[in-house]
Amino acid sequence: MTEREGEGRTSIPEIYAVGDCAGLGGAPAAEAEGIIAGLAAARSLGFAATDWQAAAEAAARRALRRHRRFQSGLWDLFRAPRLLAELAAPDTLICRCEELSRAEIEAGIAPGAETIGAVKRQTRSGMGRCQGRYCGPIIAALAAQKRGEPLTEASHWAPRPPIKPIRIGDITN
Predict the structure, then answer these.
(1) Burial bucket for residue 16 (CB in 10 Å: 0-12, 13-18, 19+)
(2) Which of 5, 33, 111, 143 yields a CA-CA distance of 20 to 30 A from 83?
(3) Which among 21, 16, 7 is positioned nearest to 57, based on CA atoms?
(4) Phi and psi angles of residue 115, each rounded to the nearest 5 degrees, phi first
(5) Residue 131: which domain range?
(6) How many angstroms from the chain centroid is the CA of residue 1?
């Protein structure tokens, strides 16, 4: 998400961000943010707001608070638990590429080998065609659960760059 301050100003001077590029809020919130950011940008250039523009900004700030409360309520109302392995039986395939079941994955999570990398080395999970795109989050959750730790960003495999090394001679000829 784009980081910005209350009037939409980003960390880059003279750049303002509004709407969904700065966080999901819907069209009415984006419109209110646009009014606020537009007037802030004009002020930064030395222009004073007219009375009707100041009134429009105050109305936009009230509307934005209302829209954000509504959006927050919507997110709370439709929040669902993030199901990973809770519904998987022991014979459910977790790593489809390597055809590894939940039981086989859990067997690879041995004491002292509870990291996702260790599980990968023990079971070959995440080494198939999808490179762990489907099974990785589930295996990370199982390993974190086994360690008794919360699932965090560091629980997952390190991202791999989308490049392949080549010889310098291949590109100089």
Answers:
(1) buried
(2) 111
(3) 7
(4) -85, 160
(5) 93-155
(6) 8
Q: Report which residue type is found at 138.
A: I
Please give the Cα distance from 112 to 12 (Å, whole number): 46
- Helix, strand, coil shares of the chain as percentages rounded to 5? 50, 5, 45
How many structural domains is the chain composed of?
A: 2
Q: Which pLDDT tens digit goes with each residue over 33-56?
A: 999 999 999 999 999 999 999 999
Dist. CA 20–CA 1, nearest whole Å: 9
> How many CA atoms does the CB half-sphere of 37 hold within 13 Å?
19
148 and 106 within one domain: yes
pLDDT tens digits, 3-25: 889 899 999 888 999 988 888 78
The model's pTM: 0.51
Beta-bridge partners for 9:
16
